[in-house]
Design goal:
Elements lengths: L2 H13 L3 E2 L1 H8 L3 H13 L4 E3 L7 E3 L12 H13 L8 H14 L2 H13 L22 H9 L4 E8 L2 E15 L2 E8 L4 E6 L3 E6 L8 H13 L3 E5 L1 H9 L7 E3 L7 E5 L6 H14 L3 E5 L2 H14 L2
Antiparallel strand pairs: 1-3, 2-3, 4-5, 4-8, 5-6, 6-7, 9-11, 9-12, 10-11
Length: 320
């Protein structure tokens, strides 16, 4: 990290704090005391309002309503930002209005020559989900489920949640520790650890009726959760060897919980080990379809008989 990048990073760091010390800056950015003092003086000279505290344990207070100094972007940085906005169009990402306003502000900050470059890029580059006849057109599907933004705001405060889900015309309640939010095949999915049944759960956000922080005693230490998941992941009942063609298919699409380990330095062969819940009909169908999708360049070492039966039935449909 060069000096300019370091100072910009330090500015972002202290702008989110009401108080900081030189020791904290030294530790956070792994720099000497003299370098930390020089950087703080430069930041003050750029206009960030800091008030030094006198004393052994003194530090700096950041005045309320302080803002970052003007940030200057290079031509390539502007293109990178604009292309990122273009690539996320019609992807059902949250904060759509904010992304649109950011793009408009970006255009208002740059020169006419830079604007012309971006207009040309907009005409040339087409991403998945873009209408080739009208690249500016936003599909109605670009609006994500309205609960997504609410969910993100809650997650920033607490990942232990009480969720209400609609399943097969029934309403169910789960206390979960949220592991990840996934966006896959045009759908938002919640991956969480059910703290009551102590198992991993994945379900569509569209099935979510309500979500709120879990203030009850239904909490398990995060470390214990990861240990339980790790032990469960080791209980694999599906083991497949993949050749280069199957690996290429894997890269195109694979279920969220599935990963591969390469077995040669050129990454042309790999092994897949995972656990298939044979009591979940939907998961059985999905994994059967996906194994068929991988193609012939696979060798099955271990497979649940229920999955094997599904594959045989599928093969019989094609070759009666």
């Amino acid at each position: 990290m060069n000096k300019v990048e370091r100072i910009n990073t330090i500015m972002r760091y202290i702008n989110n704090r009401a108080h900081f010390t030189i020791s904290e800056i030294m530790q956070e950015f792994n720099i000497s005391r003299s370098t930390a003092f020089r950087d703080i003086r430069e930041i003050e000279a750029m206009g960030m309002p800091l008030v030094a505290e006198v004393g052994r344990d003194g530090g700096y207070n950041v005045l309320n309503n302080s803002v970052l100094p003007t940030v200057r972007f290079t031509d390539n940085e502007i293109k990178a930002l604009f292309i990122a906005f273009m690539a996320t169009r019609n992807q059902q990402l949250p904060y759509l209005k904010s992304r649109q306003s950011l793009a408009e502000k970006l255009l208002g900050l740059i020169s006419e020559n830079q604007q012309e470059d971006l207009i040309l890029l907009n005409q040339i580059l087409l991403f998945e989900g873009t209408n080739p006849h009208n690249p500016e057109l936003l599909d109605l599907s670009d609006l994500p489920d309205p609960v997504i933004e609410k969910l993100i705001q809650i997650l920033l405060l607490d990942r232990y949640l009480l969720i209400t889900v609609k399943e097969d015309k029934m309403t169910k309640f789960y206390p979960i520790y949220l592991l990840h939010l996934h966006h896959e095949k045009g759908k938002w999915l919640i991956e969480g650890f059910n703290v009551m049944e102590e198992e991993r759960m994945i379900f569509p956000v569209s099935n979510l009726i309500d979500v709120k922080p879990d203030h009850t005693k239904n909490r398990i230490n995060k470390r214990r959760i990861l240990e339980k998941l790790s032990r469960r992941d080791k209980e694999s009942n599906l083991v497949i060897e993949l050749g280069p063609k199957a690996i290429a298919q894997f890269k195109k699409y694979h279920p969220l919980k599935v990963s591969i380990s390469y077995t040669d330095p050129f990454q042309t062969t790999a092994v897949l080990e995972t656990f298939v819940n044979i009591n979940n009909a939907e998961e059985l169908t999905d994994i059967t379809n996906w194994i068929s999708f991988l193609g012939e360049d696979i060798k099955v070492r271990e497979v649940p008989k229920e999955v094997l039966k599904g594959l045989q039935e599928r093969l019989f449909l094609y070759c009666p």
